[in-house]
């Protein structure tokens, strides 16, 4: 009597423990996930995003950033792609999304359309985004890293999560380390992933305090910024309050090329965002900046491992998600407008 109820309790505990520890029901992710059901998936995605990148060279940076945002907010589940409707607000309503580039969304939508013709209802939007990011990193000169497949698309998208889950350009290194650490990423992985800022641009408001009113003092500038860059940015951003679309390249030297120049820049005070430059100031992150500035192979190796890990963050499998028919809406149907 006693022993059997104890056994039952133990069994319950074991099962409860297992339910917590094990990944959600469903298959393990593998690069061969579509080899039977949609063998040309990868090639189709590559073709579509390559031609998009040729027509619009800002696509690569946009897709990489959207992928990062997708993964950090509730896992790599295409929740970032869901459009807000008048009935249901999505992540796209978050303040931080307001600058997510339309070209990136367009690239995914086009790839999805092509895939739905080839093998309808098979390839998830989360996998398309993950593969598109890899294709574009490689195309711009970066490493070709493995992308395990089999992500399902989310059944929800929270309009308040992005502002809580994503780093801001005014974060301290301490806050960055805490946020990445909370999600299971080391200091070294934080620095390697920050190398994504070798591509793309940031709007003036993201670094305006560094060039116009550092620490709230009008007219003062961030002393860690190279004065040549400060002068250039002050001129470029002069009208940014009137025209919020004005932006500057994250990597001022080789903006369209995926390379380790971002880290070399930091050594010279040429980081654009406060969070970029502080990786060089802070003793915990500096050694990795040094390493990646001096050794591009080390950067590519570590970036590859870190972004593959990022691509597995919080993924949904089995009944925890679905394969959306279109990337901007759940399959339970568009809500009436
Ligand atoms: C470490 C913390 C990070 C912070 C604080 C941060 C912040 C930002 C900010 C403020 C922008 C400019 C947005 C705009 O003005 O439109 C930006 C752009 C960008 N971020 Fe990050 N980011 C971080 C990490 C990452 C990571 C891990 C990746 C990818 C691996 C990434 C990829 C990008 C890319 C590619 C752009 C350029 C987007 C474009 O040109 O369209 N960022 N980031
Ligand atoms: C950092 O930026 C965010 C978004 O722009 C803003 O809401 C927040 O108040 C800022 N935090 C600090 C400490 O300035
Ligand atoms: C650069 O990094 C790679 C990969 O970690 C390593 O194998 C190589 O020895 C390093 N090169 C130098 C010159 O340190
Ligand atoms: C609320 C909002 O502005 N959402 C935007 C998020 O980004 C996409 C892509 O640029 C826009 O289409 C949304 O309007």
Automatic annotation (TrEMBL):
Choose any GO biological process term that the UniProt entry carries and state it. response to oxidative stress
Q: Where heme b is bound, by residue?
A: 197
Which residues does the record give as Ca(2+) 1 binding sites?
A: 70, 73, 75, 77, 79, 91
**InterPro entries tied to this protein:** Haem_peroxidase, Haem_peroxidase_sf, Peroxidase_pln, Peroxidases_AS, Peroxidases_heam-ligand_BS, Secretory_peroxidase
* Known cofactor(s): Ca(2+); heme b
- Please state every residue range assigned to the domain named Plant heme peroxidase family profile: 28-331
Q: List the disulfide bonds.
A: 38-119, 71-76, 125-327, 204-237
Q: What does the UniProt cofactor note say?
A: Binds 2 calcium ions per subunit. Binds 1 heme b (iron(II)-protoporphyrin IX) group per subunit.
Q: Kindly list the positions annotated as binding Ca(2+) 2.
A: 198, 251, 254, 259
Query: What family is reported?
Result: Belongs to the peroxidase family. Ascorbate peroxidase subfamily.
What protein is this chain from?
A: Peroxidase
Organism per entry = Oryza meyeriana var. granulata
